[in-house]
Design goal:
7-stranded parallel beta sheet, 3 domains, 26 helices, Rossmann fold, about 40% helix
């Protein structure tokens, strides 16, 4: 029987939060979850939209909100300054009403869609219902910090799990294991970059040769519409045919009460409250922009507007996650956006768009003109933004990560103890950790074989950041001492995985093993297959036997996509036939089978992570190794980039930081079986050469040589199983990862 989930959202108008929630609900598996929405308020366009989509909902207007986020907070400088005092007094009564609501309409889980619904979250916790809190905004620091402390503490103590839509959003919360970063996602069927925008242009009366600069957000103070209009006056001087479209809430008219009109005018005149509507309309009249700037009002055909536009502008004056930016990426449109830490997560400066100083109309205009003046630049930025959106914001993977979190909270994963079973009432002391399949991980003692190597050292760093005690076993044949943290942060055993005595010493006192020590490389294995098998197969058996004798039962093994050989279908899933084309692939497949066999024989938790093309910090040049450090070395030396074959062969490049996180997740969740770990995106070597050249800021010729034996033609991972089971969602786009890698690579 499906689990009932109640989604709680305020009636605050159409915007990114209700749209993001709608996309999530529409992606849920109806066989597993039954969704219903409780709107807090009296109605609005978002309620109408949900009704049109056939989503069950109900309304309550007697449960209040409590706002303390950027762009939504209680302020003395407002028309209702008394709410700074009255709203806190309404929290407890509203929480009790929410508790009673859940007692009369029982559900299995409550999903709070924004931080402002603090009373609803508290009431759900009081009712004993697990709460997943979706943080879609950044908490405001405030003058003293008391209100921020109160909101953070309430969320931390009431929520079984917290979803932050960005790393910046997560950083504004109290740290804890229940906080997960799951980016907002986009419906690529609706936001289809192949849409033709000419029909929209014709409806607007905009000729094909006129560039369109689009802003989504309307006349909202935090969105920066006034900055947008000021920039329009500057851009028009150079591009007289340009059209600026402002989509969203437009002029709303005035109150019919003359008393309220007078009071508002007085408050605006005294500078107590902003009047974005009057300011924007005044700027349009002042600069004669009636034919240049058009206010369209709220639209339901945003994808068509994006298809018709030349670029998107996000001139926000306060930091928050900008849904229009990721929608523009899905539509392959470049962006010019305010430079906040939150926007740096979704805009790769000079790759997918241009970042400018917030509130600076001149800087915004210069950014817009930079894109308008160079069509090739606009196209490259749009294509890079599309690749980033494909890598990070796909609805299927994002929804799968949320559903995996629901399963964890509800105890649907095998053996998990639910939060409700833990018997914890809100504000009755510290919230206990969940147990069972998630297992105890705080203070975990783990061994990382090959921990001084490229991937192993990043796994060590990830584990240390989680507070684990780490032992490293490495013979430094390919690893480097400088890859390890300084001092005594890790216990180091110098030795070979083929040496039983070294393995036994390294296993002493640990509870789990990350086995990464290996001979790596298709070409190297062809030249010396005996050594390859000796290390990868015999070394793995030594580790397995050592674990068996030590009574250990938790293993994460680093396998490889090389086990598949030339793919028969794309993308490659875990059930794809394994027909390796090199001795390396054969040895990794054999080692993987040994690990899984031991897991079945002795009831171990064994996860085999099949890496695709991993790159990143601590990956050094190796003539037999990954193409990225080879290209990086040649760029720094001023040598041509050598591509074997026509360069149209594809690879799935995944940043090592994502791979390290996948290792931690697999151990934390006591995962069993094989999992593909990649980005889920295929990139040709020709495109890679272009991207890494741009990331380095250097230039180089490209030459081609005959294809090499043992290399597959196409490769891309299907990562749905890892997303569903591990909660694994790649977070580092290729352009950003290459830039970080080349910055590090240039220092060694």
């Amino acid at each position: 029987m499906p689990k009932r989930i109640l989604f709680v959202h305020p009636c605050a108008g159409m915007g990114g939060a209700p749209l993001s929630l709608l996309y999530l609900i529409e992606q849920l598996d109806p066989q597993r979850y039954e969704a219903e929405v409780l709107f807090i308020g009296t109605g609005g366009p978002e309620v109408d939209l949900y009704r049109q989509r056939g989503i069950p909902l109900r309304l309550r207007s007697d449960i209040t909100s409590y706002s303390h986020a950027h762009g939504a907070y209680l302020s003395l400088r407002s028309l209702r300054p008394w709410q700074v005092l009255t709203r806190p007094l309404q929290i407890l009564p509203s929480a009790r009403r929410m508790r009673d609501e859940l007692r009369s309409h029982p559900v299995d889980l409550v999903h709070i869609n924004t931080s402002v619904m603090l009373p609803a979250g508290l009431g759900a916790a009081w009712a004993g219902v697990p709460v997943v809190w979706h943080m879609r905004e950044l908490l405001r620091p405030g003058l003293v910090g008391l209100r921020r402390w109160f909101v953070r503490t309430c969320i931390h103590r009431s929520a079984s799990a917290v979803i932050a839509i960005s790393k910046c959003s997560a950083a504004s919360l109290l740290p804890g294991p229940q906080v997960r970063v799951i980016y907002n996602f986009v419906n690529f069927d609706q936001f289809d970059h192949r849409l033709d925008g000419q029909q929209c242009r014709a409806a607007l009366g905009v000729p094909p040769e006129s560039p369109i600069v689009l802003m989504l957000g309307g006349l909202v103070a935090s969105k920066g519409a006034d900055v947008f209009v000021k920039a329009a006056s500057i851009v028009r001087e150079r591009f007289p045919r340009v059209i600026f479209l402002l989509v969203g809430y437009g002029p709303g008219g005035e109150s019919p009460s003359w008393i309220k009109r007078v009071l508002r005018r007085c408050a605006e005149g005294a500078g107590l409250v902003p009047s974005m509507e009057r300011r924007v309309l005044g700027l349009i009249r002042k600069h004669g922009l009636e034919d240049t700037v058009r206010l369209t009002g709220v639209r339901s055909d945003v994808p068509q507007f994006l298809a018709a536009s030349t670029l998107l502008v996000w001139p926000a004056t306060v930091p928050h996650f900008a849904r229009p930016i990721i929608e523009a990426g899905a539509m392959a449109r470049p962006v010019v956006a305010s430079d906040f830490p939150a926007s740096r997560e979704i805009v790769v400066s000079d790759e997918t768009g241009v970042l400018v100083r917030p509130g600076d109309a001149v800087a915004l205009a210069e950014g817009i003109m930079k894109v308008l003046a160079d069509r090739n630049l606009a196209t490259r930025m749009g294509e890079a933004g599309f690749r980033l959106a494909q890598q990070r914001y796909r609805a299927r993977e994002g929804a799968a990560a949320v559903m995996a979190l629901y399963d964890e909270v509800l105890g649907l994963a095998e053996g998990t103890r639910t939060v409700r079973d833990a018997g914890w009432p809100a504000f009755s002391g510290r919230k206990p950790r969940t147990h069972g399949r998630m297992g105890r991980t705080a203070g975990m003692r783990a061994l990382v074989t090959g921990g001084a190597g490229f991937i192993g050292s990043n796994v060590v760093r990830e584990a240390l950041s989680a507070g684990w005690d780490i032992t490293v076993l490495d013979n430094f044949s390919t690893g480097y001492p400088e890859n390890l943290p300084p001092g005594d942060a890790v216990r180091l055993v110098r030795g070979d995985v083929r040496d039983p005595a070294a393995v036994d010493e390294a296993l002493h006192g640990v509870e789990a093993v990350f086995h990464l020590a290996a001979a790596v490389g298709n070409v190297r294995s062809i030249e010396d297959p005996s050594s390859d098998s000796d290390i990868n197969i015999l070394g793995t058996i030594r580790v397995l036997e050592g674990m068996r004798k030590a009574g250990l039962r938790r293993l994460v093994f680093s396998s490889s996509a090389a086990i598949f050989g030339e793919p028969r279908r794309m993308p490659i899933d875990e059930d794809h036939p394994a027909e390796p084309d090199s001795p390396y692939g054969v040895s990794k497949l054999s080692a993987e089978k040994h690990c899984l066999c031991y897991g079945r024989l002795y009831d171990w938790d064994v996860a085999c992570l099949r890496y695709f093309n991993v790159y990143g910090v601590n990956q050094r040049f190796d003539a037999y190794g990954n193409v990225i450090p080879i290209f990086g070395t040649r760029l720094l030396r001023g040598e041509p980039l050598v591509i074997y074959g026509d360069g149209e062969q594809t690879r799935d490049f995944v940043d090592v930081r994502d791979v390290a996180r996948a290792n931690r997740l697999a151990l934390e969740r006591r995962a069993r079986g094989p999992f593909n770990i990649g980005s889920g995106q295929a990139t040709t070597v020709n495109i890679l050469a272009s991207l890494i050249t741009g990331a380095s800021g250097l230039s180089s010729e490209v030459t081609h040589q005959p294809p090499r034996a043992g290399e597959v033609r196409q490769s891309a991972a299907d990562i749905r199983l890892a997303t569903k089971t591990l909660g694994y969602v790649p977070s580092v786009p290729l352009t950003a990862g290459l830039r970080d890698y080349m910055a590090w690579f240039a220092t060694i």
